[in-house]
Amino acid sequence: MNTKPPIEFWFDFSSPYSYIASEWIEAVAARHGRRVRWHAFLLGATMQAAELKPPIAYPLKREYSYADFARSARFEGVPYRPPSKFPLATQNAARVFWWLAAEDEARAAAWAHAGLRAMFARDIALDDTASLKALCTEAGLDAEACEAVWNEPVWKLRLKQANEAAIAAGIFGAPAFQIDGELFWGNDRKPQIERWLASGPF
Hints:
Blueprint: E1 7-11, H1 16-22, H2 25-31, E2 36-40, H3 43-50, H4 59-76, H5 91-101, H6 105-121, H7 129-138, H8 143-151, H9 153-168, E3 176-179, E4 182-185, H10 190-199
Parallel strand pairs: 1-2
Antiparallel strand pairs: 1-3, 3-4
Helix pairs in contact: 1-6, 3-9, 5-6, 5-8, 5-9, 7-8
């Protein structure tokens, strides 16, 4: 029986770096006898709390950031197609995630993969209702039920609670990883995460 605590993986459906990290975190965890617990949240809420703006909001950082999204994907060997519309609101996809997570964490993680890949490998706009419903159907979900979910106050509140939990944990960006109480921020922290999992605190 695996008694090691899970890796808490915090992601935003609108984050390119979350997408890239989502493609390697489970393999890294498995190599070290861990599992991954996924948490969808909204970067906008945490950035507001931290008084931050996205890198692309700054002209000097914008072109570099776009280039680094693509380069980081190439480095990890994952498909990447720059979204035609970026950034965009993804709270509806996140609400569907929490609805699924309430019953089955594995289904929620599968939906996270589907949504992130749709956004960053297929250029599907997750803020478009028709596109999101089509993706739900493709993922084996009831599209009408999903639409009802993202409009229901209970799932709006659940996502709000996730945002508040992220802020309380000191999370201000995505992806973020909590491992044995230690917080790591960013797709580029993979080497540090690997070392921590292999040999403990350093």
